[in-house]
Amino acid sequence: MAQDASVLSSVDEGAFHALWRSFAMIIFSEIGDKTFLIAAILAMRHPRLVVFAGAFGSLVVMSILSAELGHLLPTLIPRQWTQTCAAVLFLVFGVKMLQEGREMKAGNEKIQEEMKEAEEDIEGDEAAQDGTGLVGDDVVPLEAMEAGVTPGHIRRRSSGASRTAPPRTAAERSLKSYADATRNFFSYLLGPVFVQSFVLTFLGEWGDRSQISTIALAAADNVYVVALGTVIGHSCCTALAVMGGRYVSTKISVKHVTLAASALFLLFGVVYLYEALLAIDPETTDFHPLT
User: Fold this and answer.
1) What is the phi/psi pair of residue 33, to 5°?
2) 5 burial type by CB count under 10 A (0-12 exposed, 13-18 middle, 19+ buried)
3) Is 286 helix (H, G, I), strand (E, B) or coil?
4) In the chain, what are the helix, strand and coil shares in percent, each to the nearest 5?
5) Please, which pLDDT band fits residue 64 given cuts at 50, 70 and 90?
6) Residues in contact with 195: Cβ distance below 8 Å, sequence separation at least 6, in sequence order
7) CA distance 121 to 205
8) Whole-number average pLDDT of the chain
9) pLDDT digit string, tens, across residues 65-76
């Protein structure tokens, strides 16, 4: 009985640690991120509840997909190696974020650049849907059109603008037609604001650092706990974005947030590396396979 209680206690402690890690990772990764700012800008133009539902729904889908991808990795390689890979990934991210944070200037100049890119993403998406702001094959921001700037002089900073470029091949045109039909169908059912918030958030989050980190966490810990932690973290960040994201973006320093996130990622890397080393059984592991 005492042994069973000890096992249950260790399981509960591990689940709590996984929940805390996933929650903290999302909080430090998403505040001030482009998807955070997209939700903040949309909430200033449309009903906040609809924007929150679309953005949060997208992030829930992304969290579940990422956690499931991480859950598949231990079925392909031993969990010990997935923990080692997670440790290396977090250490690399931590060092990279530390370098980025040291190179950033103090203040909110960086977040203002992110805000401008988020606005360009939204304008590009709206232009592609209603036809405004289109000049030939290019999506031109409205302020650039008012200034008389031609498409060739637009610097493609926003990934959203490049996504709206017309397809070139028959297969791409067919795929785009299906995508447009699907989007129009869901816009009719759920409303265009919900769909716009969902799509922009999903595209902005795909391949992001937080998605890759979620995959690594789910590979090393309980997939359900990690998914729950990321969903709770996304709910807090999205709610903050739609309630007062613009105000928050003027008060926080991306440099300080990045340095704090760097310290957190480095800590995660050390913890997972320590756990991977503890999982090594010296009695069954051959440290000299060539002798």
Assistant:
1) -75, 170
2) exposed
3) coil
4) 80, 0, 20
5) very high
6) 54, 183, 186, 187
7) 13
8) 76
9) 999 988 888 777
- pLDDT (tens digit per residue) in 111-136: 667 777 777 777 777 777 665 555 44
Q: Is 138 helix (H, G, I), strand (E, B) or coil?
A: strand
Exposure of 35 in the CB half-sphere (CA atoms within 13 A): 32
pTM of the model: 0.70
Is the torsion defined by CA of 9, 14, 17, 18 positive or negative?
A: negative
Q: What is the pLDDT of residues 152-161, one digit of tens each?
A: 544 444 444 4
Q: End-to-end CA distance of the chain: give it in Å, rounded.
A: 44
28-47 in b/e burial notation, b at 16+ Cβ within 10 A? bbbbbbbbbbbbbbbbeebe
Backbone region of residue 132 per phi and psi (left: phi > 0; alpha: psi in -120 to 50; beta: other values): beta
Given a cut of 90, whether residue 61 has pLDDT beyond it is yes
**H or E element at residue 280:** none
